[in-house]
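Help! Submission page says 'invalid entity' but I think these are all valid:
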Amino acid sequence: MAPILEVRDLSKSFKTFKAVDGLSFGISRGEVYGFLGQNGAGKSTTMRMVLGLIFPDSGSIFINGSEFSNSQRHLLKSIGAIIERPDMYGYLSGWENLKIFATLSGTKVPAARLQEVLEIVGLKGREKDKVSAYSQGMKQRLGIAVAMAHQPELLILDEPTNGLDPQGIAEMRSLIISLSKDHDKTIMISSHLLHEIEQVATNMLILHKGKKISEGSVHQLLNPDDTLT
Amino acid sequence: MQLLRIELFKIFKRPRTYISFGIITAITFVIQLAMLSDGKSFVGFALQGINEQFDIHGNILNGYLVAYIILQSLLIHIPLLVALVAGDMLAGEANIGTLRLLLTRPVRRSQLVLAKFSASFIYTVLLIIWLAVIALFLSLVLFGKGDMINLKSDAFVMLLQTDILWRYAMAFVFAVLAMTTIASMSLLLSAFADNSIGPIISTMGIVVVLTILSNLELPLFNLIKPYLFTTHIIGWKGFFDDPVPYAAILRSSGILVLYTIVFITATILYFNKKDIRS
């Protein structure tokens, strides 16, 4: 079976700065794939290229075996994402935001499903409040609800614990583990913190200055005796 | 259609959208109030030269004349109110970060631009309809009907009251066309920016500078004037001439449509290639 997401020799420069340099990796179904690297390592740029927000200079992206490009945006139906901050329309309610992005997902999402994702992320009862009144943690959880409402096969979460207090970080971590174990989601998650990745990921890739340093299972990478791929 | 519905929902759920309608209402009320208190002396002063040669009777300070004065006064303000929404369309979403989320959805970028342009157009139409209601119909209620004197720099045009309403209807249709050109330019500027202040101010800057160029009587500028859209956005005034210069109005309409197509095409071409880094 083709990987749910495959990236081949992807590169991107901004003027003279090489943000991503010949990056290749693949994510199989059921994995929680950690993307570890310092700020500026190229994590967000890679995720943005996978989602069609930034155009690569070279390389290819395959979603479920089909090559992704600007003219193949329908392939994004199988992905849900939060990139950096989960910014929403503050003047609208959580429910209205959820409905807007569900409508644009290319999949018919019934109201019962929206209620279900609100339950999963723990926002049931607060959906009628305006998003401007939400805490950062609630916004992050609403972002995850938006990302998963249309039942995507792959969730891409870019630094989902950024800006959260310790309790919020713990809740987010539990939510990600639950999405993987209880809801069978394949997840690509980025962080600049090793302990964040090691607690949730099954596999990980370490990125430095746009280049892949190493890749393998979290267990392998945290045990120096094991073989690296 | 779904995208357009969502864009309209967002526009009309946002409080700032109604600022434009409030500003039009406020300016119109102020002018109507001024005309109610000092209108007679204002009209007397304006008609000084004519009164010496012609014997003018009847309700000169009527709703039609007041509406015309209001429209002249709002010449610069309406583009600003259009830019407030159109200039915010892409740049505002980039600023609050929702553009990023929108474009992770399987939506074609050109569709998004067209939906945003269509939503700006509908907003513009509603703004002009509101202007028509408040400036024309309220003025008719307050000042009554009468023949309209249109004072020009070198002549005056007397229009019979039975021959005016259709002219206003056509002028408002033309105004929609002109303001749609402004909206499309504002949308283009919005595609280049990551916050809405830039496109709104730039739109106003361009409109003000080009309007000055359009009005300067210098040989150098006379060469470029026919090609400036600001020369043509005041084409609505032609409907208050007698005879109506249909050829000039049609030419102006064509140029405005051409500008709109160029602005929208440029927006799509640029936005389709733009890296979203906000």
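Support: the input was valid. A stray whitespace character was the problem, and the output above is from the cleaned input. The mean pLDDT of chain A is 91.
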